[in-house]
Amino acid sequence: MFDVPAPTLPTTSGELFPVRRIFCIGKNYADHVAEMGGDPKATEPVFFTKPADAACSAASIPFPLATEDLHYEGELVVALKAGGVELDPAACAQLIYGYACGCDLTRRDLQAVAKERKAPWDLAKALDNGAMIGPIEQREGVVLDKGPVQLSVNGELRQDGDLAQMVWSIPAMIAKLSHYFELKAGDLVFTGTPSGVGALQRGDSVEVAIADLPPLTFGLTA
Question: Which of 151, 169, 153, 194 is nearest to 36 (CA)?
Fold first, then answer.
């Protein structure tokens, strides 16, 4: 009855990666936890999701609806080729298809209201085009654990961290997720953001550069 295409993302090999689900981890860089007023010694990750069609690789997107405080969060994105449930971290490297540079866009004003009301973050995180993702580079079975994580706005460096600062390693966070969800091929995992998050304005240009992956660049139209 309806012909609705499934979301896909480009890869550096020219293939399309079908997106099944988008998982995100919060509080995975202690310095970012501190700048958001949280306890940097917290031992448990915070997980949330975005709809699959929030994944976007467009060169420009409209400024999101219903916010006057849109924030960028530069993040490494892990693309999975397989999954499972209740996995051991030692087995999780074999699930990895590859990696991409990503930007978790957040309606921070709506998130603040949700936190105050102890309500879900859906309105803040599940926005249209809220998961900006660069080309996925195939690196099967490889665990990235070091390398710069940088985000620039209009050429000005705003975030400058390192993957080595992550509280939860990639295998550890995948294993933890698998105790809540059955992971499958096509799943994406946003791995958290370092300190330096801030607001975006209409007309801004964003670049995310992580390790030696293809950078993500996009603009915000009025």
Answer: 194
